[in-house]
Amino acid sequence: MGKVYNNLSIQIENLADSHIQKYEPNTPYSFKEQGHYYLFYVKTGQIQIVSMKNEFLVQKQQLLLVYCADIVHLFVSFSQADVMVFHFGEPSGNLLSIMNQPTDADSTVLSTLASIEYHMNIIQTIKSSKPSILYDKEIGNYFNVTSSILYAAFNSLLLLLIERHFSAALPEDIRFDYLSRARRGITYGTFSSPAAAPAVRTQQKHIYKNQLVNQVIKYMNDNLGASLSIDDIASEFLVGSANLKRIFKKETGQSIIHYFHVLKMEAAQTLIIKNEKSYTEIASLLGFNSVHHFSTAFKKYTGFPPSKFYQITMMK
């Protein structure tokens, strides 16, 4: 194999502990580590980031990287948001290409985030545990190697985001050719073997299911005004209805119809808070036959009719 001569170097410094935390609506949060980068990952909900006079809407399963020259503000527009916030130094300047761009988290990014959180939890557990004199050296060695893995995983996360940025700039036919050749190399290349093939196929099936579910969710988000059935969605993605129901439930823990309903209700909350449309218009936009039907469904989901929900939200 030929040498790889080009290497994009990222120099992570002072990566702070970070865990999924809940952020409340209508409460401003500020981050003030000047000269540092902040990477936001939204697990659930939706947030708004204000940085250097720029405003960014970051939705569920998205990431955003910003640079803190002065102060960074975080706002939650409605309901709670589960967010992971990383802050760190990086002096090389090689992160400019992925700054200020909300980016969807695919399955590879999500697995890397899970690894980062796992190793951060180990480090936090070691720091908060009572020191053991008998195994001081062993614990120290374990702590050091875990920290190294954490930095490597975070470095990989940033490189994945950079890779996605530059691959998106490639012509679609060239990008498809690169990816298809890479996949063939993994399956049949130097490292594959009859024993390894089932594991490769299992991983490919998992990636396929994850991508299918993400595409279905995006399709539902794009068609909130429609009355979609499972058969409609299955037909759109050329997959059997029963198979789609099973895959979606396994990947999300929810049925497709329930998930679609939740998406509509979350969109309804956003529209009500904006107060730019009447309840009749919102009902029509979200595919309800009447404002009464919409109000009944909204009250069942939130515990309040639309008008009461708006009043309570505005009082917070």
Can you lay out the helices and strands and say which pair or pack?
Layout: E1 21-23, E2 29-31, E3 37-44, E4 47-51, E5 54-58, E6 62-67, E7 72-76, E8 81-88, E9 103-104, H1 107-128, H2 136-168, H3 172-188, H4 197-222, H5 230-236, H6 241-252, H7 256-274, H8 279-285, H9 291-302, H10 306-315
Antiparallel strand pairs: 1-8, 2-7, 3-6, 3-8, 4-5, 4-7, 6-9
Helix pairs in contact: 1-2, 4-6, 8-9
Describe this structure as you would to a colleague.
Helix content is 52%, strand content 14%. A hairpin with a 2-residue loop joins strand 4 and strand 5. The protein has 3 domains: 21-168, Sandwich (Jelly Rolls), CATH 2.60.120; 172-253; 258-315, Arc Repressor Mutant, subunit A, CATH 1.10.10.60. With 316 residues, the protein is of the alpha+beta class. It has a 5-stranded antiparallel β-sheet, with no helix packed on it. A 4-stranded antiparallel β-sheet has the order 2-7-4-5, with no helix packed on it.
Short recap of the structure:
About 50% of the residues lie in helices and about 15% in strands. It is an alpha+beta fold.
Features of the shown structure:
alpha+beta, single chain, 14% strand, 10 helices, Jelly Rolls, 9 strands, globular, four-stranded antiparallel β-sheet
Task: Give me the Rg, rounded.
Answer: 23 Å
CATH topology of the largest domain: Jelly Rolls
SSE arrangement, N to C:
EEEEEEEEEHHHHHHHHHH
Distance between the termini: 62 Å
Strand content: 5-15%
**What is the β-strand count?**
9
